[in-house]
Amino acid sequence: MGFLGVAATAKAETPRAVTPLRIGNKYTDKKPSAFVLTSTNEKTKKQWEATCQDLGRIGLEVVPVLGLDGEDIPEMAQAWSRAQTAWALKGFPFILKCMKRTASSCEQQNWFIIAEDSAKLVPQTSIEAIQSKLRSLPQGVEILQTGYRRCDDKLMLDLSTMLYKQEKHKCMITKVIGQKSFIATRTGINLLHHRLLKGKQDYFDTSMCELIRANVAVGDARPLAGSREHYSLVDGGKWQKEEMPNQRTQKVIITDLQAEILP
User: Fold this and answer.
1) pLDDT of 156 strictly over 50
2) Record: fold of 14-260
C-alpha cells in the first residue's frame, strides 16, 4: 500500500464528495482533498507514491484521478494531444462529478488542489502557505497556477485564435512549460475544462495561458511545486529529469490587449 492508504498503483475510484480548501479554516480532523491525475502504467508507480507522500506530509487527502496509460492513444499522436485528451476526457469529468457531490463546492471561498503524479512540492509548502497565497489574489481570479517545470518569456504577435473574441496586439507573456499543479474554484475548473474542449488544439499550458490573459487565472511568482524525475507518457514513454521551476521576477505582462471569455 502507498501513503494515506492509497494503493501503490492508483485504482479507479467512484466520484464522491471531497473536502475543499477554505482560506480561513484550520484543519485538524478532516483533511482538505487534493486531486492527483495519474495512470495505471506500472512505470509511474514510484512517482505516484512520492507525490502522495509529499501531499500527505502537509496534511492533504489524496483523491486519485485516473488518466490514460499511454497505450490508449496511438503512437503517432502529438504530445499535446496526449495531455489534452487525458485532462479533457478523463481528469476534469471525474473532478466535476466529485464537485456535484460536494455540497459547498460552488462557494467562492472554496478551492480545490489539482496536481499530476509527477508534482514535487518545494520544502516550504504548507496548507497555511497556500491559504496565504489565495488570500492575496485579486478579485475575479478563479485559478492559481502553483507548479510547473520552468517558465519562459514569449513574445506573442497574433492572438486571434486564443479566445472567442480577441484583438490582435503585440504582448509579452511569461508562459510556463509543463503544468504540475494548480488550485482552482469550481468556476475555474469549469473554465479550464471548457478551454480544453473548445479551444485551440495545443498543450494544456496554452489553455492556462489563455485564462491568464483573460485575468481569471494568475501564475504564482514563487511556485509551490516543480517536476520530480518521472516517466512521461505525454512524451511517448520517456524518463524526464527533475526540474524545479525558476522563480518569476514579474507577473504576466500584457500590452494593449483586450480579451473576453464567452463560456
Assistant:
1) no
2) Spore Coat Polysaccharide Biosynthesis Protein SpsA; Chain A (3.90.550)
